[in-house]
Amino acid sequence: HVQLVESGGVSVQAGGSLTLTCRASGLNFGDFGMGWYRQYRWNRCKLVSRIRKDGEPRYYDSAEGRFTISRDNSANTAYLQMNNLTVEDTAVYLCATIGSVVVSETTCGSDYSDWGQGTQVTVS
């Protein structure tokens, strides 16, 4: 049973920073890419960043230049460091496994991936 647990979401002021953590269990973590999605209206999720099995990162939209994704395979953990936050970054962030097909936008919790429950980031 795959389980992904996010943490690190907090309330911060604009311009601030935080790091999200996604701890995985029930899977061979090193065999999977990992992604961070941002939830918006109608339970839709949009990919913010992903990291391949080999550690190569990719960023989407406003994450470029501000966010850094990383992973620690020995700890079965993925991270998303978020800098220079703006109010537009306010959302629930979910981590998910990324397979051979990268889904950039989908219904949160879709069958494409295994998903965590999310962690709330609030920027004011």
Beta-strand level of the residues, as a percent range?
over 45%
Question: Mean pLDDT, nearest integer?
Answer: 96
What share of the residues lie within helices? under 10%
Rg calc: 13 Å
Strand/helix succession:
EEEEEEEEEEE
- Overall number of strands: 11
Low-pLDDT segments: none
Query: N- to C-terminal separation?
Result: 37 Å
Q: What is the approximate shape?
A: globular
SS-derived structural category: mainly beta
Question: Total helix count?
Answer: 0
Taking the sheet with the most strands, its summary is:
7 strands, mixed
Note down, in words, how this protein is organized.
This protein has 124 residues and is mainly beta. The chain is 0% helix and 50% strand. The chain has strands spanning 3-7, 11-12, 18-25, 33-40, 44-51, 57-59, 67-72, 77-82, 91-98, 105-107, 119-123. The strands form 2 sheets. Strands 2, 4, 5, 6, 9, 10 and 11 form a 7-stranded mixed sheet that branches. Strands 1-3-8-7 form a 4-stranded antiparallel sheet, with no helix packed on it. The model has no long low-confidence stretch (mean pLDDT 96).
Labels describing this entry:
seven-stranded mixed β-sheet; 124 residues; mainly beta; 11 strands
What would a concise description of this structure say?
The chain is mostly beta strands. The chain has strands spanning 3-7, 11-12, 18-25, 33-40, 44-51, 57-59, 67-72, 77-82, 91-98, 105-107, 119-123. Strand 7 (67-72) and strand 8 form a beta hairpin.
SSE topology:
Blueprint (H helix, E strand, L loop, with lengths): L2 E5 L3 E2 L5 E8 L7 E8 L3 E8 L5 E3 L7 E6 L4 E6 L8 E8 L6 E3 L11 E5 L1
